[in-house]
Amino acid sequence: MTTLTVKDLLPEDGTRGTLVGRVWLPQANGPAVVAVRGDGVFDVTARFPTISALCEEDNPAKALGLTKGERIGDLDAIVANTAPDQRDRQKPWLLAPVDLQTLKAAGVTFAISMLERVIEERAKGNPASAEAIRKEVTRLIGDDLSKLKPGSDQAMHLKQVLIDQNAWSQYLEVGIGPDAEVFTKAPTLSSVGTGMDAGLHPKSTWNNPEPELVLFVSSRGKIVGGALGNDVNLRDFEGRSALLLSKAKDNNASCAIGPLLRLFDDSFTLDDARRLDISLNVKGADGFVLDGHSSISKISRDPTDLVEQTIGKVHQYPDGFVLFLGTMFAPVKDRDAPGQGFTHKRDDIVTIAAPQLGKLVNRMRTSDECEPWTFGIGALMKNLAQRKLI
Question: Which parts of the chain span the membrane according to its record (predicted)?
């Protein structure tokens, strides 16, 4: 991992927005909730022990703005000290900007990624079969379902047509049916942030990054801000069986969120998030380069609909949750041989970026090579109690 700078982190408008992060403080042997401002990084943990607590405020951006905090340093130095193999553990470094919230993810919310899921299923996890199947699926279904409203009469008619042709799939069910796929991505507190290594299961041979918008939602169901996410995915595992979803999604360091949480305020709103353009860049040590981009505006289900299908009378989240909105595209560019498609290699650098949210940068390693996750909920509560913060 190359040394990161503030340029590799901040949104295009710098610190104009309300930016929140988490930083590991060696002197406290634990994390701090921080406000990132033009004149530095400020520890606000005395007022907000967790990001979750901040998100529970009636107006989180206003509450943070009224909290001065204690300056702990320059963002440049903290960012530069974040990569694991360049880290001075006596100095602060960045963490993922999420703590007690449940880590949830919506799947199959974009037409292009929906088609790729159908292809994975039919290919049974074999990338060599994918290209021929891709052509056949596109012939049957088409490649532009962005205007098809899930659960509508038109969608149900298409479903029946596809069933009659033996072309229906469980992925089409959640893609255009009335009920969204929402699953638990990873355990609470297990996310990695920008500058850290992201993990792939060592047995996977067909996998990809999934660039996504991540919404932060309070226990009352109020969307309070957003960040970028990489819902790292194993196409071979899930392609063999949808029952392997947890194996495909939940591995050490397989959930990346960052670089910072941008709370909604006058400079960034939910409507801005709905129009967000997100780009993907993968650079390999072998010289391979992959670029892609898309817009949240192409999503099949509105973000508020996905949130409402996640929280309500049938399911509560006392500490709030974050919700990956689903990947906008799955990389299919051939890497090694024609028809083999894309898969990661060790040391790939993945950059997910959006003008209003900055850049989430991770180096890909196998999950057993990434830093072990050892600081869980119990450790956080014990640490905050020792610091007399709760």
Answer: none
Torsion of CA 263, 1, 353, 225, to 10 degrees: -10
d(CA 278, CA 297): 11
* Residues 23 and 95 sit within 8 Å (Cβ to Cβ): yes
Query: Alpha carbon of 255 to those of 57, 188, 192, 245, 373: distances in Å?
Result: 26, 11, 6, 14, 12
57, 220 contact by CB (below 8 A): no
User: Which of the 8 DSSP states describes residue 314?
Assistant: T
Q: How far apart are CA 225 and CA 61, in angstroms?
A: 9
Reported as type and span, the H/E element at residue 171 is helix 170-176
Distances (CA, A) of 281 to 138, 331, 349: 26, 10, 8
Nearest to 384 by CA among 41, 35, 53: 53
DSSP strand pairing (233-234 vs 289-295)? unpaired
Peptide bond preceding 338 in cis form (omega within 30 of 0): no
107 within 8 A of 246, measured Cβ to Cβ: no
pLDDT tens-place string over residues 275-316: 999 999 999 999 999 998 888 988 888 999 999 999 999 999
pLDDT tens for residues 67-85?
A: 999 999 999 999 999 999 9
- How far is Cα 211 from Cα 350, in angstroms, rounded to an integer? 10
Structure tokens at 77: 């130095």
**Which tokens sit at 162?**
């596809």
3-state secondary structure (DSSP) of residue 74? coil
CA neighbor of 32 nearest in space, from 196, 24, 40, 61 = 24
Asked if 51 and 98 count as a contact pair (C-beta separation under 8 A), the reply is: yes
pTM above 0.70, yes or no: yes
Please give the DSSP secondary-structure letter assigned to residue 371.
P
Tokens of 356: 């209003």
User: Per the structure block, which two tokens stand in for 369?
Assistant: 């090579």
Contacts of 332 (CB under 8 A, 6+ apart): 116, 130, 134, 341, 342
Q: In Å, how far from its chain's centre is CA 335?
A: 24
- Between the two ends of the chain, the Cα-to-Cα distance in Å is 36
Question: 203, 213 in Cβ contact below 8 A?
Answer: no
Nearest to 369 by CA among 192, 187, 184: 192
Give the closest residue to 107 by CA, choosing from 277, 275, 248.
248
The token pair at 168 is 């229906």
Tokens of 248: 């495909």
